[in-house]
Amino acid sequence: MSSRLLSLLVFSLATSGLLAQSTPQTQEPEPSVQSLLERIQRLEKRIGELEDHQRGQAAVSAGSSGSAAVDNTKAPQTNAVLEQPASHENAPSTTAVREAERHYPSLQIRGFGDVDFSATDKKGSVSGFNLGQFVLHFASPLSEKVSYFGELSFTAQPAAYEVQVERSIIRYDYNDYFKISFGKYHTPISYWNTAFHHGAWLQTTVSRPEMVRFGGTFIPIHFVGLQAEGNIPSGGLGLGYNVGLGNGRSSILSKAGDSGDANDNRAWVASVFARPARLYGLQFGGAVYRDKLTPQPGRNFEELITSAHLVWTKEHPEFLSEFANVHHRDVLTSNTYNSQAFYIQLAYRLPWQENKWKPYYRFEYIHKPESDPVFLDVSDLVGSTVGVRYDITNYAAFKGEYRNSRIGKDEPRVNGGFFQTAFTF
Amino acid sequence: MAYWKHASIALLLGCVCLSLLENLAGQNRDVDVAVVVHPDTPVSNLGLTEVRKVFLGDRQYWSTNIPVVLLIRAPVARERNVVLKIIYQMSESQFKQYWIAKIFRAESASAPKVVYSNDMANDLVTAIPGAIAFIDARDVRAGAKVLRVDGRLPGEAGYPLR
Fold this sequence. Notes:
The structure holds two protein chains of two kinds. Chain A is an alpha+beta fold.
């Protein structure tokens, strides 16, 4: 019995050893799944070429009969393929090349949506579902150097949906160092504002930090005007810049001057950031924004916002932090007011269950002087958020979080549970 | 006794299967992946960090008149896995999210073009000005412009893409 087992063992080891040695010597490897897939793809490509060939013949015969306009730029290519059917192996496949060529305009549409549930112990609050924002964005290269980008949002209101043009940008790229664009932007005064925009699915948490909340007034979320941006030659430091000139805030501080400026003064913004090549994932930078506000006729305030951010965008861990100081000066009385806000967010993509779980924590803080006549709608805030994100697929996620915050001075703390399913399509 | 007999046979069969699988997998392991560009691209050597910058879409022009056209293999291909692991340092889902976000930020007009075979990558990189692709070094066509990465060509010691 044992001799039979021994002979089987020797046979097995000898067989596997021979197989291991023989494979590199033979020049024909075993067909792997990958190579079979590639063969299928080559055959599919060949069928495509043959179909293209047939279409080309049809086009040539139609052209010779003078019944249709023939694309002059593509006809020679078609003929070249017809003349060289045997040498296709080393000549670029016209079908593949034509498919890969960029056509102008080339509109791509993507959507973002979210459905939310919230419940808090704040007096008078009502728990329940809401539809969040339905967002469509449009990207279309118009030529090799000119492209358009648009973003529309649909927000549920008690009586109807509010439709907003969130961004509408036409951009001309001269090179990597200089790109100029015109339109409506998310102001590059804040990292969050220019990283996640209206895509709830893109951000880890259910909501944005209060200092960059949509409809909030702490910083100007939108900016209408022109902007230059690009890289700064800096080797491994990876410097980049944004410089903008525009209308600034309208008389309603949360809105940009889409239909015209509130006063005869332009706002400007400048930001510089670094993405060091050796610390892939790290970004830090700062920005300055200056404007003149006219919240009421005859009341003018100078506004100067300075901000800084430090982020680590990889997910093991993810670290986001931002700080902003908003300085107001009453032009009439020369009284000055300084308000500060910051947040720190830490998240970690857990390595098990296909990296689907991502717990997170965020602390945020806002302070404003009681006497600031511009920030009547801004309240002091100290709050913590703890939650978890679960990615159902590559394009949809569940998020659940608990928030504990104090809004306003000497106000009681509010506890709340928030749930969201956010997706892109 | 019968139990030990079956266990030994199962163990032996397991050894044989493992050996075969290892042998098959070894055929594709440790083969360098070449960075191939269109012949007119005014670059012949890039640092790994510069290759990353190009593939992250942070560098979008070779020169003022030649935009970068990124070509990347479809999922499952070994070249794609090498690119995701070494260049992007991302999982497949993170890679998809990265490009959705990049376009959503209006930082890029389109994501990398997907190619389904090394033949197709060879075709397109030769035909499209500014194109750059990762191709298994064994499948690179004669005459193609292969970039040095960190000063090294595929096959040389210390070449980083494998």
